[in-house]
Amino acid sequence: MYDIIIVGAGPAGLTAALYARRADKTVLVIEKESFGGQITSSPKVENYPTIKEISGNELAQMMLDQVMEHGAELEMAEVLRIEKSNGAMKVITDYGEFEGKSVILATGSKHRHLGLPREEELTGKGVSYCAVCDGAFFSGAPVAVVGGGNTALQEAVMLSEYCTHVTVVQNLSTMTGEARLVSILEKKPNVTMIFDTLVTELLGEDKLEGVLLKNDKTGETTKLSVDGLFVAIGQVPENKPFENLVPLNSYGYITAGENCLTNTSGIFVAGDCRTKQVRQITTATADGAVAALAACRYLDALEA
Fold first, then answer.
1. Based on the domain organization, do 222 and 126 belong to the same domain?
2. Domain that residue 93 falls in
3. I need a labelling partner for 205 at 20 to 30 A (CA). Which of 13, 183, 232, 287 fits?
4. Is 130 a catalytic residue?
5. Which is catalytic among the residues 130, 163, 260, 273?
6. Is residue 153 domain-shared with residue 188, that is, in the same domain?
7. What is the pTM of this model?
8. Both 99 and 241 in a single domain?
9. Cα gap 14→36, rounded to integer Å
10. To 5 degrees, how large is the angle CA 172–CA 175–CA 179?
């Protein structure tokens, strides 16, 4: 039986593993896809303290190597559900069952994709889901933002400061974000807002060169030449398997504050899968440390 089982091996999960091992707890990290999480899809990371520039893959590998050197165990499997069993946690996966005295959920969330052909292929080659992460790479170039909520509008405001032109593509007849943000964009000479419009095709071979747009009301199709496409149509947390253990809000995020505690004894949460305002690699690693230390206090109290 492990002291702590961590579900998810993104920056939050790996940081939690590091802190837990430094506290001399036995740790198992379970990941279903790729160790490192979403950060591995970023071609360049420039907002991680002490590192001026690094690829997401390299940063994730450094985190993983550090965790392994400290003795954490790793398992590639998909967690199907978690059950409480005789005071412990039984983590049931598609590979087998594991038992732990406590669990840290660090499953993260995925950016909602457009679902277009070649979208994955062009991710990191013009298609992005985070203007904060990648926007600076498109300085002096035309870009488009897909979405009409606060995130999309905030990203458009930021991009307008250094991109030659920003086109905001909204599938509805109005923006759903704050009127204040809409007003800011309306006053910017290098911003255009398009309504009732869908992105139907990504153009370009080795990199994005433009998009095909279709007006949902008129059926008219137009081509928009852009170097970057920022998709901001929401995120999808991966918490469904745990809804019997921890409360989820209406968007599917685990309800928990900055202390990373859930209302279920022995279950902690870290990173983008919980309710929070800012989802960045630095806030994920901070959560990992907080959740691990909270789990260690919980374990120490059990032994007292």
1. yes
2. 2-111+235-303
3. 232
4. yes
5. 130
6. yes
7. 0.75
8. yes
9. 8
10. 160
Q: Are residues 171 and 265 in the same domain?
A: no
Nearest to 297 by CA among 54, 4, 1, 2: 4
7 and 90 in a single domain? The answer is: yes
* Residue 134 annotated to the active site: yes
CB 229 within 8 A of CB 142: no
205 and 255 housed in the same domain: no
Catalytic residue of the set 3, 24, 94, 134:
134
- Active-site position among 133, 163, 260, 273: 133
Mean pLDDT of 268-274: 96
CA distance 151 to 157: 10
The burial of 231, by beta-carbon neighbours within 10 Å (0-12 exposed, 13-18 middle, 19 or more buried), is given as buried
- 25-66: per-residue pLDDT in tens? 999 999 998 898 878 866 678 888 999 988 888 999 999 999
Q: 129 with 151, same domain? A: yes
The three-state secondary structure class of 74 is: strand
CB 126 within 8 A of CB 204: yes
Name the helix (H) or strand (E) containing 7: strand 2-7
Establish whether 133 is a catalytic residue.
yes
The residue with tokens 């379970």 is 30
Distance linking the first and last C-alpha atoms of the chain:
19
